[in-house]
Target: RNA-directed DNA polymerase
Amino acid sequence: SFLSRSLTECEKNYAQIEKELLAIVFSFQKYHNLVYGRHVTIQSDHKPLTSIVNKPMSKISSRLQRMLLKLLKYDYEVQYVPGNQMYLADTLSRAFKSDNQIKDDPEMSNMVHSITKYLPMSKSRLTQFKHETDHDKELQTVIKFVKEGWPKVATKNWSQELKQYYKSQSDLHTNEGLLFINDKIVVPNSLRQQMLTLIHEGHFGMEKCKQRAREIMYWPGINRDIETIVSHCEICEKFRRSNTKEPLQPHSVPDRPFEKIGVDIMEFGSLNYLVVMDYYSKWIEVSELVNKTATEVINVLKETFSRYGIPNFVVSDNIPFNSHVYIDFAKTWDFEYKFSSPHHHQSNGQAERGVGIVKTIMRKAKEDNKNHFVGLMEYRNTPISGLNLSPAQLMFSRRLRTKLPVTNKLLNSEVVNNVKGRLTKRQQIQKQFHDRSAKSLSKLNPGDNVRMQNMKNKTWEPAQVISIDKDLRSYIVKSESGKILKRNRKYLIKSHGELNEMSDYSMSDNDNSLPDNVIRSTNGPTQNKCITMNDTNVTTTRSGRICHKPRYLNDYV
Model:
């Protein structure tokens, strides 16, 4: 037995895969008494049908959903058979009899027309989509293939976009002149930039924008285009989140006490203190400062060095240690120095840790109405966690006598061996825990356009990399105002924009507005007292200060 019928005018506009599935629905409805309750094998020369009938309902178009719902009560499987082996069915399909009595399925028509009727767009937008789809040669080729059938093999002269549509041919269908992939509308090429702007109108990140677009629209390469527009958005760059921490770069473990120290200035109770912490023994020295000038700091360091000897290496922040007086002191006393990156106190973590310990001791001593030196003594005599040796034992190879009762034997000197190995192992464990949530940042090169984080409001400002600092994680950058600054990689992100310089001048080393950030000036010292800029009413002093002509003088020639 066999049967056939012609297609209605509406059905002629179906996609090829929809026509193939329509034939199966028609045959099951006619042979219901024969196939219901039996396992039926369907042979089809349309290979995409074998996969479409096994797809989840949510992954296919509404028209196909409606057809498959009608087949749910049947037990069937679809097998692919080449058309040249299906002699009878192929012959009958070419010799159908026109039947004007065939009418469209009203349920199918209502279901399909609801796609465009309830599209979340205005009539003008819908008209725009139809017009641009009609004038898009690529989409018109796809629509033609959808209606008439796709070639068995993609040809070499096809564009990359057409090849992408070919891979998704089983999900494509048309409705009222629009192309859909499942329930998502395919955007014509001329409207894609406009859609990208609307997708990123809320300035969300890449993944959020992709998720939003993935629900409602499609075109080949949409993910790549979203990544491009988000990464080039200046507003998103300006208000981007801070970088994640990088893997820990620990300092090398010294071979002996006071070989390497970290120094920092702290304030407590309206007084200034210089904190010195030994990298080897974790011994802390605290000295009160009269002021925070380089001369006062040097005098305290000389006193400390006279007790413990001159270290080989001193790590510190910038101010006031980057002054010429301090650098001359380092040369005279024969020790090396290293400055941490501005705002990146982790690079001087040992001294920062010492400051935290001292402040905690002082707060508790003040609350208890006691002297903080007792707390310092107890700290120096308490074993370090994970090492079971106190700073005093590492520093002097003996314990300190305190108010607690102790035998003479425990106060005797005892040389401690393999301290460096134990310190190295402890450091490796700390690095392992730290690096669990760390992420390496890509290297920057001189000339790269970047954005530099403003530490006050946490926004990102345009800058340009001039050179790489010697510690490899810091860079010398030029800000939009012309300042030359040193910044850690954590506070820099690569930018797709260009640096727009506001002026040709730069701040000098002696400028007090940002003393810890300025490394050097782009311009050498000038012989003139004032540098006249393009505007005759504006001058710049040697220190970088801008002088404006008073407004009341504008009335005079």
User: Anything to note?
Assistant: The longest strand covers residues 260-268. The two ends are 109 Å apart (CA to CA). The chain has four domains: 9-110, 119-239, 260-433, 448-494.
